[in-house]
């Protein structure tokens, strides 16, 4: 099967990489540029590239890999220490405010299920976008950077669990919780089996012998984990995104220090994800988005600032928990970064449309909110953070 659309999307992905290399000061992250290119080529502007079955399948793999890498980058050990207590308190604040966001959307005319889905998505922060920004700006080792990353990771976990439990195919949330427990138990058992088998010298030698070249055993096992747990979650009636995220977390649990034990594996994961699958997901998301219903409907346009305010309230307000350990400027920095969200809003838009919780205009407004959050909030936040860093705040 050939796909002209896939070739065009790959050309866009390559072009975005070149543009960012030629313009290193460009403040827009790669995923946002890919999404914007998709919007230009899709029905919103020129309508040149349709989404065919092959492109759609690769895009689904890309979405799964986004969530796999989010789970893989999550180091649970860094979330349970006393230093991360403000991040955990911030998550509690977000969990309290999310039902209020649901009520606000319901009051302005949204279906209650749609409002609840969006409120769950508002819990998430784009770790994949915020993390590189903090590292590039030198703030990752700064206290504000560490707390922001911890808060972002906790928000992703909460969003994944909330969406899976509240909006899976299982009939009731109680049944979804039971299924979630089953999946977690199976995941823990799988991790234990892998850890036990990996202790065998023969198995370890076999994996190492096939780690590079044509074998790529570790990469193949990672891809199997993504597909297998996504299928398991979907089969049991939960969202497949839970399985992909869980697969990443289990891979990290089996090998908690891959930077030292298998540094080449991280490079390969980045190559597979950011070299192929993830750019296809973002460009295709732009192709699927049709913002014409949003732009043509004044009520839908007015929803966008409401959603952005709710995003700032649900996630940004969580940074108030950092006030005892951070100065006011750093609290504002953390709040803006925590409210930076794009991938999960795109995922929620796709889930909402496929489940018929959201119509085209609502899904488009949600995606546009994510775009605005990535365009505006990180630029202001990093500028504030650099000032604190220059002032010598630890």
From TrEMBL:
<feature type="transmembrane region" description="Helical">
    <location>
        <begin position="114"/>
        <end position="135"/>
    </location>
</feature>
<feature type="transmembrane region" description="Helical">
    <location>
        <begin position="271"/>
        <end position="289"/>
    </location>
</feature>
<dbReference type="InterPro" id="IPR038770">
    <property type="entry name" value="Na+/solute_symporter_sf"/>
</dbReference>
<feature type="transmembrane region" description="Helical">
    <location>
        <begin position="175"/>
        <end position="198"/>
    </location>
</feature>
<keyword id="KW-0472">Membrane</keyword>
<keyword id="KW-0050">Antiport</keyword>
<feature type="transmembrane region" description="Helical">
    <location>
        <begin position="219"/>
        <end position="251"/>
    </location>
</feature>
<feature type="transmembrane region" description="Helical">
    <location>
        <begin position="147"/>
        <end position="169"/>
    </location>
</feature>
<keyword id="KW-0406">Ion transport</keyword>
<protein>
    <submittedName>
        <fullName>Cation:proton antiporter</fullName>
    </submittedName>
</protein>
<keyword id="KW-0813">Transport</keyword>
<feature type="transmembrane region" description="Helical">
    <location>
        <begin position="90"/>
        <end position="108"/>
    </location>
</feature>
<feature type="transmembrane region" description="Helical">
    <location>
        <begin position="301"/>
        <end position="325"/>
    </location>
</feature>
<keyword id="KW-1133">Transmembrane helix</keyword>
<feature type="transmembrane region" description="Helical">
    <location>
        <begin position="45"/>
        <end position="69"/>
    </location>
</feature>
<dbReference type="Pfam" id="PF00999">
    <property type="entry name" value="Na_H_Exchanger"/>
</dbReference>
<comment type="similarity">
    <text>Belongs to the monovalent cation:proton antiporter 2 (CPA2) transporter (TC 2.A.37) family.</text>
</comment>
<dbReference type="InterPro" id="IPR006153">
    <property type="entry name" value="Cation/H_exchanger_TM"/>
</dbReference>
<feature type="transmembrane region" description="Helical">
    <location>
        <begin position="363"/>
        <end position="384"/>
    </location>
</feature>
<keyword id="KW-0812">Transmembrane</keyword>
<feature type="domain" description="Cation/H+ exchanger transmembrane">
    <location>
        <begin position="17"/>
        <end position="380"/>
    </location>
</feature>
<feature type="transmembrane region" description="Helical">
    <location>
        <begin position="331"/>
        <end position="351"/>
    </location>
</feature>
């Amino acid at each position: 099967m050939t796909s002209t659309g896939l070739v065009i999307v790959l050309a866009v992905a390559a072009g975005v990489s070149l543009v960012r290399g030629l313009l290193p000061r460009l403040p827009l992250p790669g995923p946002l540029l890919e999404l914007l290119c998709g919007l230009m080529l899709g029905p919103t502007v020129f309508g040149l590239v349709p989404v065919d079955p092959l492109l759609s399948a690769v895009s689904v793999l890309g979405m799964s890999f986004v969530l796999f890498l989010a789970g893989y980058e999550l180091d649970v050990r860094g979330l349970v220490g006393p230093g991360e207590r403000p991040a955990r308190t911030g998550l509690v604040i977000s969990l309290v405010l999310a039902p209020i966001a649901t009520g606000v959307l319901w009051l302005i005319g949204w279906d209650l299920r749609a409002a609840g889905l969006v409120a769950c998505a508002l819990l998430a922060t784009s770790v994949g976008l915020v993390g590189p920004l903090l590292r590039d700006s030198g703030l990752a080792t700064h206290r504000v950077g560490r707390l922001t990353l911890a808060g972002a990771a906790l928000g992703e976990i909460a969003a994944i669990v909330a969406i899976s439990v509240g909006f899976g195919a299982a009939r009731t949330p109680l049944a979804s919780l039971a299924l979630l427990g089953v999946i977690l138990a199976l995941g823990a058992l799988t991790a234990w089996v892998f850890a036990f088998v990996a202790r065998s010298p023969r198995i370890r030698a076999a994996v190492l012998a096939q780690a590079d070249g044509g074998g790529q055993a570790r990469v193949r096992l990672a891809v199997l984990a993504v597909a297998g747990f996504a299928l398991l979650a979907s089969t049991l009636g939960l969202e497949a995104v839970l399985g992909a995220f869980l697969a990443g977390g289990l891979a990290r649990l089996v090998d908690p220090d891959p930077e030292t034990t298998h540094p080449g594996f991280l490079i390969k994961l980045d190559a597979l994800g950011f070299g192929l699958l993830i750019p296809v997901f973002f460009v295709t998301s732009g192709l699927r988005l049709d913002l014409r219903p949003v732009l043509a409907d004044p009520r839908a346009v007015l929803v966008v600032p409401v959603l952005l305010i709710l995003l700032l309230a649900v996630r940004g307000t969580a940074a108030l928990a950092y006030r005892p350990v951070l100065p006011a400027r750093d609290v504002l920095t953390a709040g803006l970064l925590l409210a930076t969200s794009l991938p999960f809003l795109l995922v929620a838009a796709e889930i909402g449309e496929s489940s018929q919780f959201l119509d085209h205009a609502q899904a488009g407004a949600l995606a546009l909110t994510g775009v605005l959050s990535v365009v505006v909030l990180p630029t202001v936040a990093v500028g504030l953070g650099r000032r604190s860093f220059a002032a010598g705040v630890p």
